[in-house]
């Protein structure tokens, strides 16, 4: 073998080794690309599932908000209905407080004499206040249609 043939043989072997390494690199690259495609496909599937779940969740939240608004409106209506009751109770408690104050003044003025008369006066005032309250309540219910 001549030097040219040996050089050609070395070049052919080097070229063959280069081709083998390039083939191995290309196979690894193909596997990496395949894994990347699989990852992208899984990501797309996940995005589709999440999108469907979010759509469903948003519909359910919207329904819940509608029901909450209806419930709140119902509660507001019922609170408005019982508001006069609280006003009447506040007025009655104020009248009772005034009555207590008046009865204390009467008892201190009367002292030991006429305790029975003072008690009768207090009872009369309590009865009169109660009658006014119930009379006011009856006229209020009669004007609202018996409710």
Tags for this model:
single chain; 147 residues; mainly alpha; 2 helices; 0% strand
Topology (SSEs and partners):
Layout: H1 3-110, H2 115-143
Produce a short descriptive summary.
This is General stress protein. This protein is mainly alpha-helical and 147 residues long. The protein is built from two helices and no strands.
Portion in beta strands: under 5%
Count of runs of 4 or more consecutive helical residues: 2
Helix content: over 70%
Question: What characterizes the major β-sheet?
Answer: none
Structure explained in plain terms:
With 147 residues, the protein is an all-alpha fold. Helix 1 crosses helix 2. It has one domain. The protein starts with a helix and ends with a helix. Helix content is 93%, strand content 0%. The longest helix has 108 residues. The protein contains two helices and no strands. It comes from Candidatus Enterococcus mangumiae.
């Amino acid at each position: 073998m001549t030097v040219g043939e040996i050089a050609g043989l070395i070049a052919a072997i080097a070229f063959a080794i280069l081709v083998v390494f390039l083939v191995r690199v290309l196979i690894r690259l193909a596997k990496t690309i395949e894994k990347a495609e699989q990852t992208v496909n899984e990501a797309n599937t996940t995005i589709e599932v999440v999108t469907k779940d979010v759509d469903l969740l948003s519909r359910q939240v919207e329904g819940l908000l509608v029901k909450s608004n209806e419930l709140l409106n119902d509660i507001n209506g019922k609170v408005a209905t019982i508001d006069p009751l609280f006003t009447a109770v506040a007025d009655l408690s104020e009248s009772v407080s005034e009555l207590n104050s008046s009865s204390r003044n009467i008892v201190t003025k009367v002292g030991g004499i006429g305790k029975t008369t003072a008690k009768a006066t207090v009872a009369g005032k309590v009865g009169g206040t109660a009658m006014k309250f119930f009379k006011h309540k009856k006229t209020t219910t009669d004007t609202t249609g018996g409710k």
